[in-house]
Amino acid sequence: MAESSPTLSPSRRTRPETSAWLMLVSFFLVFCLVVAGACASAWWYYTTAMVKAEGAFVRVHALAGVSYQRRDSANRTAPSKPCAIPPITESCQPLSENDRVLAVPQAGYGPVASVLLPDRTHIQLWAYPTGADLTMRKFQVSRWSHQRQEVEFAQSAGYVRYDIPSGEGQAYADMRYTVVISNDIRLTLAPGGSYSIEVPQKDARLPRLSSTGAPLLAEIAVRDGSAEIGGSASGQALVPGQKAQIDDTGAVSGPLPAEWNLIRDGNFERYMTGAPADGISTWATHGFDFDLTVSDAERAAAQMTIYRTCHPTTPSAFLCPRQQTVFLAQFERQGNQSKSYGYGIEQTLDLDISEYRSLRFAMWARVISQSVPDAGVTNNECPVTVRFRFKRDGPADAPEERYICFYRSSFNKPIAPAGQYVYQAVSNQALWFRLEFDLRDPTFDLLKSARYIDSIAIYGNGHDYISQVTDISLIARQQR
């Protein structure tokens, strides 16, 4: 018997009107998705579209040595248009994206140029000792709204200070500031902060090293606000009073105190391990003439010796574990000498110190013996003498000198500061004394207004003397 083929029952067939409704609903949903997507795209474009901003300019403070390079030019020119805002003796130049500002070391000490933005951002460039190189890579704002402002600089060389205003009361709700110091390292600076970034250049005489001993690529310090180091530098965050160092491999130190010891080898470790005694990486040793009639034989009576002994803070002067020992420098001149002569150490610093509002010099010192009472008849025969050589304003200034005179006295009446000298008297015993002076202290006329320090020298001076120093430092801290 033949089988009959199956047929669909009328109840299982889709009615034409149902199919039409399904198609209509599907097309409507697609239409809604297209409209929603178009609206979302339009909103995204409205909120994120950026346009180049205007109003940035560079103001040149130095008489010479600062140049400007347009983004589409290989030529560098010195801005020459007088500024509209006093002092009109300074020159100004509008800046656009990818314009570059450069300064040579000879431009002077202190800030030699400033980049200013309409939001009151103030960026200052220092030129000495490595020169400065800053490019404004991006300055953009939201095209259709007051949503966002983006500022990005590329810093290739020198010391730059960034003072960024608070976002309160600004025209844009979201304000972003970035500094790029290499292809992989970006520094994000929060509004309402003050920051400094140094990108040192290679110096054949004295390469800058990080705290780990590796060559230093950059250093960032925070006075106010907060900063984050991004890119390959692992997102280190910094708060006020901290700094971080980035070495040439991109490795970032942990947060460090925002202070700098301007003296190298204050514990004589490098000197004793054979570093060149050239006054650059460590100390140079030589004599200091005060009486030009001193003979060669009288000069030869002075000498300096460095040896290891217990730190001045240890209870015993001779018995202590090695970790409590230090190297000290001893200045000595004997033989009942009749003329004054100095002998000791000197170090070249060659630094712009205009950004440092505190310069705290400290060391341990003691006088074992001195043949001249107090500081001598002329008050400059000091068994421990510290000399600072500096310039007050610019490279063309004549060098000046200031002295700290450390001596033993049996009188309870210290010598008042006079001329180039500040005095520190101690009891007439061979005891260690922690000598400390803030060179910016207006009480003393030391380095209170100096912009540049050339060198420091520490030596014994007088007829016969034996004196010792150790643990020498000059700690600099920035202004806030």
What gross morphology would you assign?
elongated
* Structure summary, number of beta strands: 30
Give the oligomeric state of the chains in this entry, treating copies of one chain as homo and distinct chains as hetero. single chain
Distance between the termini: 107 Å
Strand content: 35-45%
Brief sketch in words of this structure:
Helix content is 9%, strand content 44%.
How would you characterize this protein structure?
With 480 residues, this protein is mainly beta. The protein contains 3 helices and 30 strands. It has helices at residues 16-48, 269-272, 296-300, and strands spanning 50-52, 57-60, 66-69, 81-82, 91-94, 99-103, 111-116, 122-126, 132-142, 148-164, 174-180, 185-189, 193-199, 216-224, 227-231, 236-238, 242-247, 256-257, 260-261, 284-288, 302-310, 325-333, 341-352, 356-370, 384-391, 400-409, 421-427, 433-438, 452-462, 465-478. The strands form 3 sheets. The chain has an 18-stranded mixed sheet that branches. Strands 19, 21, 22, 24, 28 and 30 form a 6-stranded antiparallel sheet that branches. Strands 20-23-29-25-26-27 form a 6-stranded mixed sheet, with no helix packed on it. The longest helix is centred in the N-terminal third of the chain and has 33 residues, at 16-48. The radius of gyration is 34 Å and the shape is elongated.
Which helices and strands appear, and what pairs or packs with what?
Layout: H1 16-48, E1 50-52, E2 57-60, E3 66-69, E4 81-82, E5 91-94, E6 99-103, E7 111-116, E8 122-126, E9 132-142, E10 148-164, E11 174-180, E12 185-189, E13 193-199, E14 216-224, E15 227-231, E16 236-238, E17 242-247, E18 256-257, E19 260-261, H2 269-272, E20 284-288, H3 296-300, E21 302-310, E22 325-333, E23 341-352, E24 356-370, E25 384-391, E26 400-409, E27 421-427, E28 433-438, E29 452-462, E30 465-478
